[in-house]
Design a protein that fits this description.
The complex is a heterodimer.
Chain A: E1 4-6, E2 10-14, E3 19-21, E4 23-25, E5 33-38, E6 44-50, E7 56-58, E8 64-68, E9 73-78, E10 87-93, E11 102-103, E12 107-112
Parallel strand pairs in A: 2-12
Antiparallel strand pairs in A: 1-4, 3-9, 5-6, 5-10, 7-8, 8-9, 10-11, 10-12
Chain B: E1 4-7, E2 10-13, E3 19-25, E4 31-37, E5 43-49, E6 56-57, E7 64-67, E8 73-78, E9 87-94, E10 105-106, E11 110-114
Parallel strand pairs in B: 2-11
Antiparallel strand pairs in B: 1-3, 3-8, 4-5, 4-9, 5-6, 7-8, 9-10, 9-11
């Protein structure tokens, strides 16, 4: 069965420091990948997605992610985080063309002043 | 455009009681989904619908039923609530399948506590 693994459950970081949130996927077929963000007490919203083409994908709020097929990874990065980036981040992959999404366990990013 | 809305926002139930969660979207999306979110487990798909009048089971369907009588609404029912169903429930919708790269749009969530 397909699975998405987020390697860190919590990532504490100081404001203005760089951050990387790690995600590994399992699909060996054509891949679409998503990162969603959930701010406290809110629903999820799309941060960015990889469909095809350039392996470096830029999203909202200065985030970017790199698709690496050989390592089956889709890590999320930001060069300088703000307090407002404190949230939970989810990596997700659709298992084929079923309409569904498989989510990772989530990574809580805690930005400290 | 309200996007995806969920009713109610919060509910407390006693074991064995029933309730219905309502999801509504005004984006004319074909696909709708119900997820539950539990600490450390991400989001797990309960049921989903690929169009009006259709429903399908997701990853964790037991104890839940759904109906999609109108394109804009997707109802999630708990016939006999159990403490294991204490969770935050999210509804989402999309124009087409995530397998085609489509974005899912989420509601604000319903917090359910079953005592």
């Amino acid at each position: 069965a397909q699975s998405v693994t987020q390697l860190d459950s919590q990532v504490p970081v100081f404001e203005e420091a760089p951050v990387e949130l790690r995600c590994n996927y399992s699909s060996s077929v054509s891949v679409y990948l998503f990162w969603y963000v959930q701010y406290p007490n809110q629903g999820l919203q799309l941060l960015l997605k990889y469909l095809s083409g350039s392996t470096l994908v830029k999203g909202i709020n200065g985030f970017e992610a790199e698709f690496n097929k050989s390592q089956t990874s889709f890590h999320l990065r930001k060069p300088s985080v703000h307090i407002s980036d404190t949230a939970e981040y989810f990596c997700a992959e659709p298992p084929g063309n079923t309409g569904k999404l498989i989510f990772g366990q989530g990574t809580t990013l805690q930005v400290k002043p | 455009n309200a996007g995806v809305t969920q009713t109610p926002k919060f509910r407390v139930l006693k074991t064995g009681q029933s309730m219905t969660l309502l999801c509504a979207q005004d984006m004319n999306h074909e696909y709708m989904y119900w997820y539950r979110q539990d600490p450390g487990m991400g989001l797990r798909l309960i049921h989903y619908s690929v169009g009006e009048g259709t429903t399908a089971k997701g990853e964790v369907p037991d104890g839940y039923n759904v109906s999609r009588l109108k394109k804009q609404n997707f109802l999630l029912g708990l016939e006999s609530a159990a403490p294991s169903q204490t969770s935050v429930y999210f509804c989402a919708s999309s124009y087409s399948t995530a397998g085609g790269g489509e974005t899912q749009y989420f509601g604000p969530g319903t917090r359910l506590l079953v005592l």
